[in-house]
C-alpha cells in the first residue's frame, strides 16, 4: 500500500516511544491539527495504557494512528515522502526548513533520541530545535513535536 501524502497536512513519526503521557499528548496534538500519527517499532508501553489514554482524553477517535515494524516499512509506503529527523545532535534548525504538506517529522525515543547512523545517513534533513540555555540537554518529546508541527502548519498556511 502506498500512503497518500495529501491526506494529511503533516505526519508525526515516533520511533520506539517510551513514555505513555508523551505519546498521549502527541496524539492529542495530532487530533487538534489533523495530523497523522505513526508509531514505529517496539513501544515502551501498551496502547491500552491508562496514562496514554488519559493524556489523549476523549480525542482518540479523532486520531489516525498507524503502526509500523520499522522506519523502512513506513518509508516504503511513502516513496516520495520527505522525512525530517529531529535531534539535539545536529546544527541545522527547524527554522531553516521549508516544510511542505505531507512531510514526515520524525522523533526518536525519549532516552536515546534517533540513532546516530540514521542522522549520519540523512544530514540534509536532520534538524534541531535551538535552545539558548546550555543548562538543558533537550526538550520534552511532546513539547518538541508541538513546536515543529506548528511551525510547519504556519509555513503552509493552515493556521490562517
Describe what this molecule looks like in 3D.
- There is one protein chain.
- 34% of the residues are buried.
- The longest helix has 15 residues, at 141-155.
- With 160 residues, the chain is α/β, with parallel strands linked by helices.
- Residues 1-6 have low confidence and may be disordered.
- It contains 5 helices and 6 strands; from the N terminus they run βαβαβαββαβα.
- It has a 6-stranded parallel sheet.
- 31% of the residues lie in helices and 16% in strands.
- It has one domain (5-155): Alpha/beta knot (3-Layer(aba) Sandwich).
- It is globular and about 35 Å long.
- The protein has helices spanning 20-33, 50-56, 71-77, 116-121, 141-155; strands spanning 10-15, 36-40, 65-68, 83-86, 103-107, 126-127.
- α1 (20-33) links the parallel β1 and β2 (36-40).
Quick structural overview:
The chain is of the alpha/beta class. Helix content is 31%, strand content 16%.
Give the domain tally: 1
Termini, distance in Å? 33 Å
Which range best describes the helical content: under 10%, 10-25%, 25-40%, 40-55%, 55-70% or over 70%?
25-40%
**Based on helices, strands and strand pairing, what is the structural class?**
alpha/beta
Radius of gyration: 15 Å
Tell me the fraction of residues in β-strands, as a range.
15-25%
**Would you identify the CATH H-level superfamily?**
SPOUT methyltransferase, trefoil knot domain
Give the rounded overall mean pLDDT: 88
Name of the CATH architecture: 3-Layer(aba) Sandwich
Shape: globular
Low-confidence stretches: 1-6
Q: What is the CATH fold-level name?
A: Alpha/beta knot
DSSP strand count: 6
